[in-house]
Amino acid sequence: MKTKKFLLRLVLFTFATVAAFGQDTTSFFDRTKRIPDPKTPEFRFIGYWFNRATASNISPTNELLQGQIIGRLFGQNTTNTGKTASYVEQRFVPMFIYSPQILDGVATFRSLFKIDMTWGDAAYGVGGNKGGGFNGGQVNLQTLLANVDIHPTDATWNAVFGLQRVFDNVRDPNIAAISTAQTSAYKLSYWGTQGVGASVYAYLNKETQFRAGYYQLYENIISENDDVGLWMLDIESRIAPKLEVGADAWFVWDRGKNNGGISVLGQGLNSSLADYNGAARLSFPTSKYEANIVWLGGHASYNRDFSLGRFWYDGFVMTNLGTIDTVGATTAKKFADIFGVAANGSINYKYGQTVNDKISFEALYTTGDNNGVADKSVNSVITGNIYGSPTAIYSNHRALLLFPDPKVVNRYYSAVQDISNMGYGVTGLFLNASKDIVPNKWMVKIGSALAISNTTPRQGGNLVGSEFNVEAQYTYKVFLTFGFSAGYMAMGDFYDSPDVTYNHVRPSHDPWVAFINMMWLMF
Question: Kind and range of the H or E element at 10?
């Protein structure tokens, strides 16, 4: 009996104790309470590593830019076909981000550098794009970004000052992925580089983004009126759950008078740089000129990135307007007007589980002019490739030879390097189909491309060429991939013209390329 009474008292005491402590919430750890997020570190590192081993029948005869070959295939970079070239390249791109906690995240400094080299090229020297020679020791660090980002607490805007990315897109390139810039707005076909200046990025409301920026392209002599400046205004709004529309206005105030530029290539409408890049190069009665160039355009995207369905539509229309004045000893005189148009549209269908299970078709059209400024009117499309190299890097087409391929290190060239196609204009058609054989692991792709010149060069035809390409990519770990790509381009009668090759002779062999690569994005 005593034992039963003892057990009963023990049970009652236990329940009473639990109930009593249950009322004291400070006595027990609340497991529903969220663990606070760790503070963002003041100093962060992001890195990109790229290796590429290439075999191709394309090679230059004159490496003007010290190991870096950029520009139009068969153009002034002296690239030609005939001999088989094989080489291995590597690229390392480190980014350093510093955001001191004492400023509560209001100010952030970003710097981005690049180290490119071809295995076995040079050592113990000074200059970019080299350093793979035995013993190393090359001074080859190139600065791509060095800017300060001011973002007040709880503000819907931020301002960026210094050396920064200059993209033809409303989104802040410090935050948005480069792949987004390649597939939206103007797809980097006008501006896709870096430059010094000031930008403001803002959300006017929950659905509307805005960008205003000024970038100093060339200063030249600080006491003279010989600068080149770029102003950009962009706005984009999501007017429906799947539909984004945007409008853009850019302006270049070109008073460079043919001064400045890259090495001996110069810069501007009548520079060797424009010819080198495959852009529209114009000839004036005098070497010096002034120009006011305006870009006005609009773009739209439906279901971008397959966010809410299986179809993704995208397109843009951009116009070039402006005036060109020739400059004499004392005065400037109006010489020509500018009016060019570019249009682009794409249709993408996602038929499977992953984003790589898709079929895509894209078309590009740009107006052309086969007499330059002879009739006092320029109808060619003008891009940033007349001011830098490379500046306009259109790559959403996924071709390898006919249009530029971005998966390169020191050798970046193609048949239509600039969407103006030397000023002749171009119609480009692209068809690609890809499939994840193993979801998010093994991807294969086949693609084709066709380019037709919209005006005819002297003694030549309109067909620039056609291309067939294949690609395979294996994702070994997250952000660590290995790939294989190969492409073949059949040249058209466009190259019968002596005006479109550097040696005025049609190339004897169609170009081809094959390469394997490794990419690693480091966090």
Answer: helix 2-23
C-alpha separations of 14 from 7, 21, 22 in Å = 11, 11, 12
Work out whether strand 377-378 and strand 332-350 pair parallel, antiparallel, or are unpaired.
parallel
Query: Which of 368, 347, 521, 371 shows the shortest CA–CA distance to 455?
Result: 368
Say what the pLDDT of residue 30 is.
44
Three-state DSSP at 183 gives: helix
Give the pLDDT confidence score for residue 32 in this predicted structure: 44
* CA pseudo-torsion sign 175, 418, 377, 429: negative
Yes or no: say if 98 and 108 are a contact pair by the CB < 8 Å rule. Answer: yes
Q: Which helix (H) or strand (E) holds 237?
A: strand 228-240
Helices H / strands E in the chain, number of each: 3, 21
383-421 pLDDT per residue, tens:
999 999 999 999 999 999 999 999 999 999 999 999 999
Do residues 58 and 511 touch, judged by C-beta distance below 8 A?
Answer: yes
Q: Position of tokens 């739209």?
A: 300
The candidate with the shortest Cα–Cα distance to 52, out of 486, 390, 367, 432, is 486
Q: Are 110 and 147 in contact (CB under 8 A)?
A: yes
pLDDT of residue 479: 95
b/e 263-298 (16+ beta carbons within 10 angstroms → b): eebbbbbbbbbbbbbbbbbbebeeebbbbebebebe
**Residues 417, 165: Cα–Cα separation, whole Å:** 20
Where does residue 133 rank: exposed (0-12), middle (13-18), buried (19+ CB within 10 A)? middle
pTM score of the predicted model: 0.90
Residue-wise pLDDT tens digits, 317-352: 999 999 999 887 566 778 999 999 999 999 999 999
Residue 16 three-state SS:
helix
- What span, in angstroms and rounded, lies between the C-alpha atoms of 285 and 368? 22
Strand partners, 344: 316, 364
Q: Which stretches of the chain score pLDDT less than 70?
A: 1-37, 63-67, 329-331
